[in-house]
Write a structure and sequence with these properties.
three-stranded antiparallel sheet, mainly beta, ten-stranded mixed sheet
Length: 229
């Protein structure tokens, strides 16, 4: 049974992404669920191929501090390793067309931006530029893209404290293809992401657990994680 202080004790859904090593640009995602903190994790659905950062992974800032010697930093093109809460979801469709998504949902518009300027008070946030009296950032990503990469997505709550320079705007989103790595997100085929969005329940406190295989296996017993083989 999980200890009372364990941050995973309330989670009944998890997504596990395992890569072969820190430099791998690809991995495999598996979903798991359980009925309570005392029950065993059970697999949900099939294994899904994913692409990771162009330079692999680095330890991120999530629910557990793994006390790494080196961490992810802004612009390193690495996906964060660790354990992270999920949500909200986002997409191009208006909310009425996305009623099947149970996570809180943000409709992206032409003025929705992901702020990656560490000097901004809005660092690591999705914001609507049109609703702000003053814009204080020099760098951001327009979320409503000309392609489908953000047609559907989920925010990964990496660096929730918005520590300047520790990395920002990490998502699960649609991939371009199986050979195109990301700037730090985890991406997959659209049908698989849609299946996850239909399944994920905010009441189950879903988490993303993402690590190279050796680190995942080392953490499995300590945090009662599911087998990802």
């Amino acid at each position: 049974m999980l200890a009372a202080t364990d941050p995973l004790r309330t989670s009944r859904q998890c997504l596990v992404v395992v890569a072969e090593n820190w430099n791998a640009k690809t991995g495999v995602l598996r979903a798991f669920e359980r009925t309570s903190a005392r029950s065993r994790w059970q697999p949900h659905g099939r294994a899904v191929p994913v692409v990771l950062g162009k330079k692999g992974m680095a330890w991120g800032r999530g629910l557990i501090d793994f006390k790494p010697a080196a961490r992810k930093v802004e612009g390193d093109n690495k996906a964060p390793a660790g354990i992270f809460r999920l949500g909200p979801a986002f997409g191009y469709a208006p909310k009425p067309s996305a009623r099947w998504i149970r996570l809180p949902y943000v409709q992206l518009t032409k003025t929705t931006e992901g702020v990656d300027d560490p000097r901004s008070r809005y660092y690591n946030k999705l914001v609507d530029r049109s609703k702000l009296a003053k814009v204080d950032w020099q760098s951001s990503e327009q979320m409503l893209r000309a392609d489908i990469l953000y047609k559907w997505g989920i925010v990964v709550t990496h660096n929730s404290a918005a520590t300047p320079g520790a990395g920002s705007c990490i998502f699960l989103h649609i991939w371009k293809n199986s050979g195109s790595a990301t700037a730090g997100c985890t991406a997959m085929p659209e049908p698989d992401l849609v299946n996850l969005l239909r399944w994920l329940d905010p009441g189950a406190k879903p988490v993303l657990i993402q690590m190279p295989r050796p680190e995942y296996e080392a953490s499995r017993v300590k945090f009662h994680l599911p087998s990802a083989r």
